[in-house]
Write a structure and sequence with these properties.
It is a single chain. The chain is an alpha+beta fold. Helix content is about 35%, strand content about 25%. The chain contains nine helices and 13 strands. The strands form two sheets. The chain has a seven-stranded mixed beta sheet. Strands 8-6-5-4-3-13 form a six-stranded mixed beta sheet. Strand 4 and strand 5 form a beta hairpin. It is globular and about 80 Å long.
Length: about 325
Amino acid sequence: MDISSVTRSDGAGAGLALEVRERPLPGLRVSVAGSRLLISQQGRTVLLASVDDGNEGVRFRRTGGHRSVVPPLRAATARAVAGSPVRWAYRFARWLDGPAGPLHDGRWLLTHVTPFPRWRPPGSSHADYWGSLLIEGHPDGRIDWFEHHGAWKVFPLRPMPGADDSRVKAYRGQAREGVLPPVLLWWVSGLDCHLVLDGHARLAAAIAESVEPPLLRVHRTLARDDLSTRVDEAVGDHTRELARFSVLRALHGPAVPDGAALAGPVLARRLAALDVAVEPTWAWPLPGGEAAWQRIADAVTAAEGSGADGTGP
């Protein structure tokens, strides 16, 4: 895997671009069969989901089968790397580049820049805001797309531990010190939410202490060829805009600006946006289709000894 830095239009770091090769099928992946979704990890069923007939939401069942791609993080490491999202990103990139993660061939962005601050209600506490983003229900629940479309919900892949959990207590101390390691999120467009790949206890600690949780978000971004094409298009539009101003100056004199002050920032923003563009999550056809999905769902239900109330997918 090749790793390179990505910057925003203001020159600040946006994260890391991860170029993955020779991995056509990831260990953690989304499979689809009609309106049914399955997330599996190295052969284990992690999540079963079924989209409503009216596409207004999706019912799900979590199995508890998810295994973190990140090893246990020691307190000494947290203090040594604290305050440096770039250093954390390099560490998490190495951990993501393994057989149990979601990375497959293509380009990915691992970034600490997330959309959450833009949608936070004014005056809300960290605890209230982040608590409101969590998708509840274990093992069963429902994501309401009609109400929450585009709300950037956060989907824990296992039950969130309580504030008095021993791991949460340890992380609460780190949250108060300002050295809490980031929570790792994976944007899955087919569910319209972020899955928590690692850091359930850290997220619970941040909520319990009402502090902003540090985050790293991984998602697909433009492939190299697509990026090159989009860059050429942006540069072409920029060149044509300058030519338009040149014609206007020739007709109306030097009182007309040359256009550089207007078109230049537009080009810079477009190029920066291309580097961090969010692409849809890939999904693979489930062998056997909906019948296979149903067999898996029945096996999960039988293994759990529950589901007779019909609340599952």
